Amino acid sequence: MQQQPISRAPVVVLIVFGVIATVLIFFGATRSTAPPDVEIMAAGTTDQPREVTVIMRDYRFEPTPVVLVPGETVRFTIFNAGLEVHDFVIGDAEVQQAWSIADAEATPPNPLATAPPASVPPETGGLRVFLRSGEQATVDYAVPGGEQLSLLCHIPGHIEKGMVGRVDLREVEISA
After folding, report:
1. In what order do the strands lie in the sheet containing 60-62?
2. Could you give the C-alpha distances from 45 to 70, 110, 113, in angstroms and in order?
3. Residue range 109-120, pLDDT digits in tens
4. Per residue in 152-172, pLDDT tens?
5. Which of 43, 55, 68, 95 maximizes the CB count within 10 A of its CB?
């Protein structure tokens, strides 16, 4: 009985796929990920808020940065396109600290326990929208002036996984 030579085709296929994967990873890593420039023609007003859409994914916000004008009113349309629950918290450092504390206090010590809802006093300011997977919400927001804003998801563990959005404030004339 004569033995057939062992085919080297599977090894060659693996090497070729490995090289292709390495090339794709290299090109993906060197690709510019600069966000598109946002041009704001007119700042939003109470009567005509400027539309801003934000998509929450597991674990990032799109777009980032979110470009806002101090003193304008925007109408956020927020989608949770992730598989997890997420919250959209926009505000200054005090707002973020308040929600961080509230969420930490509402987190049950036992993973099987039901968490009570997190809340902060109304005078805290900022905006928080909590959405389950697949949900969306539309809400108007008056952008405060003179404050550095940030966008975070305070669901436990989400900030650590990178769910932090950037907010850029730009000066644009607000027409009355």
Report:
1. 60-62, 50-57, 73-80, 136-142
2. 11, 46, 44
3. 776 666 667 788
4. 998 888 999 999 999 999 887
5. 68
